[in-house]
Amino acid sequence: MNATIVMTNIELLANQKISYDLPKHPYIAILAIYSQSVTSEWQSICSDWIVKSEQCYWALAWGHECSIWDDALDYAYLEFCNYDLPEDDDYNFMTTWHEDQTLDEVIEFAKTYIASPLEDSTLEIILINIQ
After folding, report:
1. pTM of the entire structure?
2. 122-130 and 27-33 as β-strands: parallel, antiparallel, unpaired?
3. What is the pLDDT of residue 120?
4. Among 52, 56, 59, 87, which is least packed by CB within 10 angstroms?
């Protein structure tokens, strides 16, 4: 693998206004969900924030109710695409959830499995910690 990997951490407080700008270049998001008090409305806002950046091509959910986060991200993407999946050259978005893995294993998965096809480029992995 020749891709350079850059890790960035973002700390979000559940149910609070999101005031961070996401990258203007392709990135992977890892959502580490620690909070058990996230409202469904805020979950939708957070999912829309990621999808509407149009630069996240893979979002991995880990932690509390990570499979529900995976669904919320998928719904946000479907709504963004007007329920018409894009052509190959358009913005494509993949999600996975990792309830039986450690956060370190999820990060390693992102670095090796997702980043390995990239050659001679830089990949940013955004670790979004939801407290």
Report:
1. 0.92
2. parallel
3. 55
4. 87
Query: What contacts 127, CB < 8 A, 6 or more positions away?
Result: 7, 8, 9, 10, 30, 32, 107
Pull the structure tokens for residue 6. 């850059």
Residue identified by tokens 């990239």 is 118
pLDDT per position as a tens digit, 32-65: 999 999 999 999 999 999 999 999 989 999 999 9
What is the length of the chain?
A: 131
Could you state, in order of their start, the residue ranges of all structural domains in the chain?
4-130
In order of 95, 97, 115, the CA distances from 119 in angstroms are 22, 26, 9
Strands of 27-33's sheet, edge to edge?
4-12, 122-130, 27-33, 56-63, 94-97
Residue in the block written with tokens 């992977």: 28
| CA proximity to 14, closest of 61, 34, 127, 29 | 34
